[in-house]
Amino acid sequence: MQSKLCAAVNLNFRDKIIHVDRSSFFRTTAWLWLTATVAVLVIGFRQAIFFAPMEATMGNLQRIFYYHVPHAILGLVFPYINVAASLAYLYWRRRDPLKALSADALAVASAEVTVLFAGICLVSGMLWGKPAWGIWWAWDARLTSELILWLLYVSYIMLRRFSPTGQTPTLAAVLSVFAAIDVPIVFMSIRWWRTQHPAPVFGGGPDSGIDPGMMPAFLWNLAGWAMWGFFLIAFRFALEQRRQLADQDAALLAIEASLETPQ
Asked: What is residue 241's three-state secondary structure?
C-alpha cells in the first residue's frame, strides 16, 4: 500500500514538473515571438512612412495601403482557421471530446481575431475612402460583402457569449461553415462586379501591381501583422483552454457535492 502511494506521489510530482517545464517553454516562446513581432512591425513602419516612394496620384495618403491591405488579406485568412477548427470540432465531438475541446478553443480564438482584422480593414478603408473618393462608404460589392463577413463573425461571438443552450459550440461551428462561404465572395467581388473599390492590386491583369520600391514596405507590414495575428490567436487559444479546464473543474466539484449530499 505504501509503495503504491509513493508511486502515485512520484507520478503526480513528475506530471507537475512536466507541466511547469512546458509552461516555461511556452512562456519563453511567446515572449520571443512577441519581441520579433514588434521588431518586424517597427521595420515595416519605417519602410512605409520613410522609405517607400510617394505614390504619384494620392501622395502620402497612399501610405495607408501598407496597413489596410495586410489587414484585408489576413482578415480573409483567419476565417479558414476558424472553419477548419469548427469542422474538426464537429468531427471529434463524439469520437474524442478532448480533441474537440481544443478545436473549439482554436475556433473561438480565430473568430475573435477575424473580427479584429476585418474591423480594422473596414475602418482603414473608410479613412482612406473619404479623402480619395469624397465619401466614407459605398454600398458596392466589395465593401458590402466585407461588412457582411464582419457581421457574421460578430454574430458568431455573440452566439458563443449569450446562447443559453448546451449545444452552443455545435451551433457556432455550423455558423462558422456558413460564414466561410462569404470569404471567396469578398475576394472575388472586385473581379465579378464593377465596384467603387479599386481593381485588384496583385493579380489583376497586366496593369496591376505596385512600384518595386513599395514592395519591401508592404511585405514587412504583411509579415508583421500576420505575426501579430497568430500571436493573438495563440494567446486567446491558451485563455480559452484555461476557461474550459475551469468549467470542467467546476462541473466535477458540483457532481462531487451532489454525491455527498445526503438523500
From this structure: helix
What b/e sequence results for 211-247 when a residue is b if at least 16 CB atoms lie within 10 Å of its CB, and e otherwise? eeebeebbebbbbbbbbbbbbbbbebbbebbeebeee
Cβ-Cβ contacts under 8 Å for 210 (sequence gap 6 or more) = 201, 218
| Residue 57 φ/ψ, nearest 5 degrees | -90, -50
In angstroms, the Cα distances linking 219 to 51, 73, 79, 222, 223 are 13, 12, 21, 5, 6
Q: What is the pLDDT of residues 119-161, one digit of tens each?
A: 999 999 999 989 988 899 889 899 999 999 999 999 999 999 8
The domain limits of the chain are: 57-260
pTM value is: 0.86
Q: Could you give the CA distance from residue 85 to residue 79 in angstroms, rounded to a whole number?
A: 10
CB atoms < 10 A from the CB of 150, how many?
A: 21
| Per-residue DSSP letter, 59 | B
Q: φ and ψ at 59, to 5 degrees? A: 70, -140
pLDDT band at 224 (very low <50, low <70, confident <90, very high): very high
Q: What is the pLDDT of residues 66-110, one digit of tens each?
A: 999 999 999 999 999 999 999 999 999 999 989 999 999 999 999
Rounded to the nearest 5 percent, the helix, strand and coil shares of the chain are 80, 0, 15
| SS3 state at 137 | coil
Q: Long-range contacts: 92-95, Cβ < 8 Å, 24+?
A: 93/169, 93/170
Q: CA distances (Å), 103 to each of 107, 127, 169, 251, in order?
A: 6, 36, 10, 20
